[in-house]
Amino acid sequence: MSTKIAIGGDHAGYEYKQRLVEKLEKEGVSVKDFGPFSPDSVDYPDFVHPVAMAVESGQSEFGLLICGSGNGVAITANKHQGIRAAVCWKEELAALARQHNDANVLCLPARFIEFSLAEKIVDTFFSSDFEGGRHARRVAKIACL
Asked: Which residues are catalytic?
């Protein structure tokens, strides 16, 4: 598993975020928590942009974002040129996001998956490798520069 992960989200993802930070740290992963730090209503971009910047800059190897649907955090993170954020609600999607798309940010829909599944998705995402090959050519065409 990766050793440096930036994590953030919104109020709907707060509980899962807290529990995932605990899980990852127990596994020896270095986690930088960008918030939120309470379940009070927040604006998710305030927490997503710092996570995306940490991944873009190389301070973190990967990002993990959690909100109600996963969509808001993914849309925001994907505004950053160096980010490939994927919403995953199944383990297979997490594996494919890494293997075929070289996704570097995992986005979870806390309101639509059980926490036990979120843990499995996280494990799958961070243990899967990019396959390269034909996929590398496609990934190279994603950025709008």
From this structure: 67, 100
